[in-house]
Design goal:
Rossmann fold, single chain, alpha/beta
Length: 234
């Protein structure tokens, strides 16, 4: 758990943390895989990650979740990811794996995305790093409160409608197999739910994420309800 002073410091620390582990995975295994979440908080992190000088020819980028919306729609997580990160780094097109939410048969498309992950990573589909956010309602990925997706046994599933959109999402089994999970949490609205998450509140969908091999990075505003809240260098 690390509390950073503000959002710019949070983005910089997240980029350093993720960049170092991606470079290590490439060095150790010849390849690294990163699954990223959407929303407004990660865009500064994506922009900072683009400055890390990573070996992008050996890094594959997947999505944690995606809204069912037209290509280029601002609701699409891919739109912000493309602008903030993918357009700024020399990553081969074949290394970018967007969720296929344009397909007419979304259930089949979700199964196909799981197959795509396994075809690259083998039958266990073990991603190097999964980046997660946290909603003020306790969701992460696209696991809305009360949605049966949190009990899915397949690796990729559909959820929703949630805030007006159907979603495609990685599920708890796949997220929890990752080598590293990193949470990126910002803003005062997240303070109550972050406290509940760290208290293992079983009512939160986000509590389905494992506890070991996990790093939580938050800004000071999100950490105000934690014991001894405030910036730390832990």
């Amino acid at each position: 758990m690390e509390i950073l002073p503000d959002r710019p410091a949070l983005a910089a620390r997240a980029a350093e943390f993720v960049g170092r582990r991606l470079a290590g995975a490439v060095n150790d295994h010849g390849r690294a895989t990163l699954a990223v979440s959407g929303g407004s908080t990660p865009e500064a992190f994506f922009a900072a990650l683009a400055q890390q000088g990573l070996p992008w020819e050996s890094i594959h980028v997947f999505q944690v979740d995606e809204r069912v919306a037209p290509p280029g729609d601002p609701d699409r997580n891919l739109t912000g990811l493309q602008t903030a990160l993918l357009d700024r780094v020399p990553i081969p097109a074949a290394n970018v794996h967007p969720m296929p939410v344009d397909e007419p048969d979304l259930a089949r498309a979700a199964a196909g995305y799981a197959d795509e992950i396994r075809s690259l990573l083998g039958p266990d589909g073990r991603l190097s790093i999964v980046h997660l956010g946290l909603g003020d309602d306790g969701h992460t990925a696209s696991w809305p409160p009360g949605d049966p997706v949190v009990d899915a046994t397949v690796d990729v599933a559909l959820a929703g409608p949630f805030n007006g959109r159907m979603r495609m999402t990685l599920t708890p089994p796949l997220v929890n197999r990752a080598d590293v999970i990193v949470w990126l949490i910002a803003g005062a609205a997240k303070a109550p739910v972050l406290r509940r998450l760290l208290s293992h509140d079983p009512e939160l969908p986000a509590s389905r994420v494992r506890r070991s091999g996990v790093t939580v990075l938050a800004d000071a505003a999100a950490g105000t309800e934690l014991p001894g809240g405030g910036p730390s260098e832990a």
